Amino acid sequence: MTTSPRRRRSSPPPPPPPPSASNPKHKLGLLSGAIAILCLFAGHTPKVAPKFQEAPWIDRTASLVCLPTCVGSSLAHNTGVGDSETVLATAASLAPELPAQDLKQLFSGDSHSLVARAVGSAEGTRRPDGGKNNAYYGHVDPGNRAWNLGSFSYQHGAKTPEEADRKQLRRLKLQFQVIHSQAKRLNLELTPAEQLNAIDLANQAPLAALPDRGGFIERLLEARAQGWSGDEAILQARVNAYRNPDTNLWEAPGLGNTEDSIRRDQARRQEAIALAMAVP
Fold first, then answer.
1. DSSP notation for 154-178
2. Which of 77, 134, 174, 272 makes an SS bond possible with 88, Cβ 3.0 to 4.6 Å?
3. Domain-embedded: residue 31
4. Beta bridge partners of 154
């Protein structure tokens, strides 16, 4: 019996040479490491592409002005106060012009208007007859600890309550124009109570009131389809505007993030608005 000769074992490959300063790849690695260290010490971290999320979580009670960039869009992005007027004006410019009667009925008189009395009553800064509570002249927001001024608890930079009211009234008129456009597209006629509650919700939480999807108008249409009407439909719309339309989860940590706590707050505000509407 013959055997084949044993195959010689090959010697292991020599180890790679240590990186040299002249190696371009080594230079790039050193540079990347140095940048990462500098970012760390500067209080920054290198940006990483965010993972896709089907239903990103957002705080619908946030006081940031978060608005659609145009009337036909869903909620597009968050924007700081500095450019929010431009973004909202763009949306409002694409909306049909508001009936003069609606504007006169709601906003006539500015700080003495029905909007100021109703929203101010809901905020606790005004009384239903228009009288001013101590909170009108300034108070700390219980949610984010910001300093609030005026009828609408304005917290985005104003020196006096009067200036705060002028700024927020201008914004609310534009917001109402967007809300009016959404209702018109859905063939939804809004009662004065529905208009005021939509405006108040926009003042309290723009993210709950203004989006096409899951905002006040869509939730009001859903409530009517489910058989609710009048004040009950308004309350259902206000409460459910704090739900994420994709996950159906509550997004209102500022209001306790439970249905009971959100409903209590919205019912209280709705009642305050009704009292202001009852004043001749």
1. B-SS-SSHHHHHHHHHHHHHHHHHH
2. 174
3. no
4. 149
Selection from 216, 116, 106, 123 nearest residue 167 by Cα: 116
List Cα–Cα distances, 25 to 13, 102, 251, in angstroms: 22, 68, 48
Residue 242: which region, alpha, beta or left (left: phi > 0; alpha: psi -120 to 50)? alpha
Of residues 76 and 33, more confidently modeled: 33
> What's the average model confidence in pLDDT over 239-250?
95
Number of domains composing the chain: 1
For tokens 């993210």, what's the residue?
207
What pLDDT score does 99 carry? 59
Question: What one-letter code names the amino acid at 35?
Answer: I
Residue 42 lies in a domain: no
Cα 101 to Cα 97, 108, 197, 247: the distances in Å are: 11, 10, 18, 39
In a domain, 2, yes or no: no
Q: What is the pTM of this model?
A: 0.71
Q: In this predicted model, what pLDDT tens digit does every residue of 122-156 receive, in sequence order?
A: 999 999 999 999 999 999 988 778 899 999 999 99
pLDDT for position 71: 34
Give Cα separations from 185 to 9, 83, 179, 212, 280 (angstroms): 81, 27, 10, 10, 32
* Segments forming the whole domain that contains residue 239: 65-278
129, 160, 181, 237 from 210: Cα distances, Å: 28, 27, 11, 12
- Reading the block at residue 103, the tokens are 């504007």
pLDDT given for residue 109 in this prediction: 93
Return the closest-CA partner of residue 19 out of 27, 11, 7, 10: 27
- What is the rounded average pLDDT for all residues in the chain? 76
